[in-house]
Structure formats: C-alpha cells, structure tokens
Amino acid sequence: MLKFNSTLLLLSFSFICCLIPASAQSSEQDSLIVKYFRERIADYEKSGNYKFEKGNILSLKDVKISQGKIWNLWKIANTTFEKLPTKFPDNPQVLADIPVHTWQLKGEEPMPFYYIKKKEKPATGYPIFLNLHGSGPKDREFLSTLGLSYQYKDGATSYIVPQIPSERRYRWWFKSKQYAWENLIRMIMIDDTFNPNKFYMMGISEGGYGSQRLGAFYADYLAGAGPMAGGEPLHNAPPINFRHIAFSFETGEFDHMFGRNKLTQSAKDQFDSLSNVYPGNYVHKINIQKGKGHGIDYSVTTPWLVQYSRTPRPTSYEWILFAMDGRYRQSFYNIAITKPLNIAEGDEYNRASFIFNIDKKSNTIYLNDAVKNSDLSKSKPLSSGSIDIYLSDDMIDLSKKIKVIYDGKKVFNKKVKLAENNLIESCAIFNDPERIFPAKIALKLN
Question: Which terminus of the chain faces fewer neighbouring Cβ atoms within 10 Å, N or C?
C-alpha cells in the first residue's frame, strides 16, 4: 500500500496552484458564475434554486468592487437572451413610422409593442413607463396609447407600449404576461439607457386595472404606478405594498360601471389612512375628476409620477404576498422565499404578510409574519417555509453582531459573513444593480 507524506503533498499542491495564473483561476470562476446566471435566467418559472456555493469571503472594503464585477458578469450572461431594440426612426413625422416589435410569450400568442424615446437621454438615464392600453379593439387601443405617450408633457422619457396578444384574454396580469414583465425588468436593469430607479407602470381602463395589480405585485422595482379610469377591489392590489412608491390614481366622478368611482374613493381612503400612520411613506395623488365619466384628463399622471424615484432598499416595510393567476412571487425588496409557504390562491387563507423593520441603533432586525385571508381581516401563524434575508451596509452595520427578533423571539445574534456567493445569488434573484447584497441570514419560518 502506498503511503503519502501529507505535508509534502500539501506543499506540492500549493506549488502547483502557484504555477496556475491567477487570471486563469479567475476566468474559470467567472465562467461558472455566467453559467449559473444563464441557468437562472432560463428558469422563467422561478423554481427557487438559487444556491451558489463557490464564492470568496469578502471584507467590507472589497464589497463595492465585487458588486461591480458580479454585475458585469450578469450583463455578460444576458448577451444570449433577448434585449430591447437599439434602432429608432429619425424624427418620425407620423405614428405609422414607429416600428412595431414583438415578444414571444410563454403559453400565449406573441405580444407586439412600441418602444419610444422622447428628447435627449438624461445624464442619469431615461425614466421608463410601461403604458398599458384599454380593452377596446386592440389595434385602435394600441395606436391611441402610443399617441398619448407622445403627448404627455413628462420631459425626456421612454415608453414601452404593448398590445394585448389576444382579445379573448384581455388581462395584463395573466401568468404569460408576468413572465414578459419580468423579462422587461431584467432588460431595463442591464441597459444603461435607463435609470433603474425610475421605472413606472400605468394604464387606462383595463390598463388601469392591470397597472394597479401589477404595481402592488412588483412594487419593489417601481418608482411609481399610475392607473387611470380603473378601480380594482383592494384585495387584488393591497395598498400596503405601495408604501415606498408614488401612486397616482385618476377616475371620473360619474364612472359608475363596475363601481370604478367608488373603488377609487376606497383606495383614496386607505392610502390617506396609511399615510397618516407612516408619514411620508405613502406618497399618493388619488383624484376623482369632477364632471367626468370614463373619459378623463389623462395628461396629469406622468408629469407627477416622473418626479419620484424608487427606494430600492427600505429598512421598514410590509409585504402582502398575494397570487396573480395562481402564481406567487418568490421575493420582495430584500427577502427571498427558499422553501414554500402553506398558502394557495383558492384557500381561505391565501396570502402571507411579512412585516420587516430594522432598528439601526441596536443593530436589530424585527420580523413578523402570518397567513391571511383576502381582505386581511383574519390571520393565523405560518406553519411552513423558509426565507433568506439579504443585507447591505447602508441598511445595517455589517461589522457588528446583528440580532434578529422573529415573531417576538430572538433567533439570531452574531456577526454575518460577507461573501461573494451572496452577491451572486442576490443578483440572480433580484436582477437589480441596486440589490446585490453581500450578506444574508437564513431563517426557518414557524
């Protein structure tokens, strides 16, 4: 039997590693990261498999450089996937000169869209609006929404104007569209054309319903939402989720169909109430336009919204996790669900609540959760699931011990490890240059 001198073997291995150029080792690791990213991008249903085991330990001073490196690798990974168009007609004189582009949707007919830019690009990048049309004949609504996008006096802005793929499925929040919006978010975030903190969703009538629901669903990516001539029942678009974004809502006084005027007033009452509880956190302008029916003044929404920017890493928020078309999101702000919760869309208790707060003075995270019914009037404890809480040094002091109080009990009290794999995982989860987190705390739920 052969016997090895372990000390000699270790020295020999170290010597061989020294002979391998650092650039080659780095290149191999970079390739692994890009491969991992591409697998995550292709997983459009978001299976939740985001673990990346191989990553360097970081010091606080290394974090910024490493974030830049990881974001550049994310951009490289995206080169094999679809991107927004790059060519535009020079000074189009008529709407017919604007080209129509197309997205291939998952489980749905293709979605045509216009993509326009108004004026010269600002130094910080264009604000961008997703502008959803109403439920009339789709060709007419598509062109009309494009025309309105040019008319709005909101300065140097950019617009995505999609056309509903099928009039038989006239809903902007169906699952096939969710995949499209998540692809759009990914494309916006990697494109230096845009300001990642100035993305807005808006729409008229059916587009108003859509932008209200989508605004609550994707609030962590948005600077604002602007439904018009709509009025969702509030359980479809929980106002709590809008805490850190600007919310504009315009509806006519006499827009009685489906109770749009009453539902808009109900939204105003709730937003006013939340604004009193959290001053400055629920910026909103909800207006019942006097003397108007379903046709209103649409011009007031975007000039107001475009003033506001996103808060990408709030230290205090509540997330109502609700389903759209049977699908729940797996992340919000800095929380990622890693094992499923005991909720389903058809159940009485069909949504979850996470209340997240950081006390910077004591370096403590407070987290409370529950499962709730649709109108949030009933709740009970969660009985399954786990989450990762991602953290950055502007949210909490990463150089000190961090305490976590979960549902009133201390469950964590130690320093967290700063690691490259946290940057990689959070980049893949959030697809967001503002949310590449160096630290995380794994937490098993009740």
Answer: N
